[in-house]
Amino acid sequence: MEDLYRKLFNELPGYIRAQDRDFRIIAANRMFRAEFGASEGSSCFSVIKGRSNKCDACSVEKTFQDGECHASEEIVKFKDGKEISVIAYTAPIRDDAGNITAVEVTFTDITKVKRLQQKYRTLFDMTPCYIAVLNKDFKISNVNRWFEQDFGEGVGRFCYEIYKHRKEPCIDCPVARTFQDGEIHHSEEVVTSREGSQKHVRCYTAPIRDPNGDIVSVMEMSADITDLRQLQSRLTSLGMLVGSISHGIKGLLSGIDGGIYLMETGFQNDRKERVDQGWSMLKRNIERIRSMVMNVLYYAKDREIFWKSIDVEKIVASVKDILDSRARRHNVELRMKAEPGEFDGDQDAIHSLLINLLENSIDACRVDKSKQSHTVSLSSRFQDEQVVFDIVDNGIGMDQETREKAFSLFFSSKGAEGTGLGLFIAHKIIKSHSGTIDIESDPGKGTRFIVKIPRHRQTSNGIHERLDNPLQG
Amino acid sequence: MNVEKKKVLIIDDEPDTIIFLTNWLEDNGYSACSATDGSQGMQVIRTEKPDLILMDLRMPNQTGFQLYRALRLKEDLSHIPVIFVTGMTESQIFGDECTPLPKPEAFIEKPINLKALHEAIERIL
To answer: How many Cβ atoms from other residues are within 10 Å of residue A396's Cβ?
Structure first.
């Protein structure tokens, strides 16, 4: 009989051994001996792990202590050095009096299962979207690497807390719906990463069922569509730009038609004053179309700054030249005063900036019916290593809403002429020169723009750099 | 026989359009007067009593929309025919998503087609 048991023990398909309290192997089956080497009398930790002392969490020791069976996952080493993953099951062997005399240990090889598990884990981790597995109470039980990278560990915390910094579940949650009906649901959400950046995500939820078909958790996969949304918003704003300028251009084309009509009929009837009137109308509207096209180009392309030294007096005189007739036509007195000196900037951009601000001021005067006379003044001075442009008008003024939105794209409080580009572009130019702009304005009283631009070019590390060579940059 | 000229009021915030249309109307046998926004327009309507109004819609202060609605509600002025002369398209003004607006006597989109404008004025006056 004993022979039969011994034979059975030897031939069992698994790595089986028995140990005493001192971690010595007292018996081992054939498979164990074949793979781990001759071993009776040797300590288990040296044979299966190549260690010189016992393992920290030892199941054999636990079984000796509590007389219970235990199981643990281990990585063990064959005599040829090959490592395998096993589940070690321990069971007590008792004598007739019930005392534990030995512990039997069986290794089940799970290397293939582990590899498969690792393969799926890699797939889970490397799937290019955020994956979180959620319990019914919206607690996260597992996340992939992408999730961890952008939202942190997350396991054990609520999804709404991690994704949206909320204290309670979101309204109309697709995870809750999947728990309810077992179907796949989707939604679009804006979530906040651990760095605080906003991400637009398209989120899909799918049920995970146990062998009985009950939903035990829900997998939530969120694809980052921030780039797509940004592109969409850029396309939308381009659409708005086209809409916004098309109205303005139609008005300007009418002006050109008007100029041509006056010139034609003036020539036909030999009326010089009508020809002159038509000619100046034509020039005016062509100049305005030119300025509108330049603004669109500034908007459409992030123009690289061409740094050079700018003579304030010259640029102010050139701006006055362009705007003088426009101001006169609307009975607006244009006053210019420039402190002599130079500063670093992009000449064309600064020119557009001043034209945009002054045109805005002239328009504010043009629509103001409450005063007899109107003045727009531009003065410039150098102060604390900055050039300061002070533009003051006594036009219609701005209420709080207009003031707050003044630099927003496509916001215009004007009628036909407003494209909502002028002050937006002005602001963009000031920012690109590391400058600032402040508005002081009251309805009915007028508006003051104060623009401050560093006198010398500011480099990325914050150091002011003097541009002695005008071609530098 | 001295026939009194029909008077046309131009309401537009763009001075060049006013100069253009004033000259063109006078060349075509009408008299013209003008206003640069809705509120000024209402005053001129009262003082000049025009036979026809050419009205832009997007203007500062009071828009053409506001003026037109007010005009249609005033018993003594609602008979004055109006032509919208504007950079906006018909669908932008009367489309499904717009606040309902009574149709004017004619609609001319900028840039102005003078032939179409002439025909519309002849038909109305």
So the answer is: 27
- Using CA atoms, how far apart are residues A188 and A120, in angstroms rounded to an integer? 27
What 8-state DSSP symbol labels residue A154?
Answer: -
Give the closest of A247, A257, A281 to B87, CB-based. Answer: A247
Using alpha carbons only, give the angle B17, B20, B23 rounded to the nearest 5 degrees: 145
Whole-number Å distance between alpha carbons of B79 and B64 = 17
Q: What are the Cα distances from residue A80, in Å, to A34, A36, A83, A84, A109?
A: 11, 8, 9, 12, 16
Contact B12 A416 (CB under 8 A): yes
d(CA A281, nearest CA chain B) in Å = 7
ipTM: 0.91
What does the alpha-carbon distance between residue A242 and residue A249 come to, in Å, rounded to a whole number? 10
Closest chain B residue by Cα to residue A260: B20
Mean pLDDT for the stretch of residues A319-324: 85
The answer to whether A250 contacts B58, with C-beta atoms less than 8 Å apart, is no
Give B99's DSSP letter: P
- Give me the residues paired with residue B81 across strands: none
> B84: which DSSP letter?
E
- Is a pLDDT exceeding 90 seen at residue A132? yes
pLDDT, one tens digit per residue, over A361-401 is: 998 898 888 888 999 999 999 999 999 999 999 999 988 76
pLDDT at A471: 32
Categorize the per-residue pLDDT at B95 as very low, low, confident or very high, splitting at 50, 70 and 90: confident
Angstrom distances, CA of residue A238 to CA of A245, B90, B107: 10, 22, 28
The first and second tokens of residue A217, run together, are: 């958790």
Burial class (CB in 10 A: 0-12, 13-18, 19+), A371: middle
Query: What's the average model confidence in pLDDT over B21-50?
Result: 95
Q: At A466, is the pLDDT very low, low, confident or very high (cuts 50, 70, 90)? A: very low
CA A158, A162, A167, A168: dihedral to nearest 10 degrees?
Answer: -50
Structure tokens at A23: 């971690």
* Chain A interface residues (partner B, CB cutoff 8 A): 246-248, 250-251, 253-259, 261-262, 265, 274, 277, 281, 284-285, 329-330, 367, 369, 396, 413-417
Please tell me the predicted confidence (pLDDT) of residue A469: 35
Provide the whole-model pTM: 0.53
Contact between chains at A247 and B58 (C-beta distance less than 8 A): yes
Q: Angle of helix B15-27 relative to helix A272-300, nearest 10 degrees?
A: 140
> Is the Cβ–Cβ distance between A448 and A431 less than 8 Å?
no
The predicted-structure confidence for A1-31, as pLDDT tens digits, reads as follows 678 888 888 888 889 999 999 999 999 999 9
Query: What integer pLDDT is reported at residue A155 of this predicted model?
Result: 92
Looking at chain A, the number of H-run helices and the number of E-run strands are 14, 19
Q: What value does the mean pLDDT of chain A take?
A: 87
CA-CA-CA-CA torsion for A421, A345, A389, A325, nearest 10 degrees? -60
Task: Name residue A190's amino acid.
Answer: V
- Measured between alpha carbons, how far is residue A436 from residues A392, A397, B96 in Å? 16, 20, 43
Cβ contact A416–B87 (<8 Å): yes
Beta-bridge partners for A202:
A188, A223
Q: Tokens for B69?
A: 């609605």
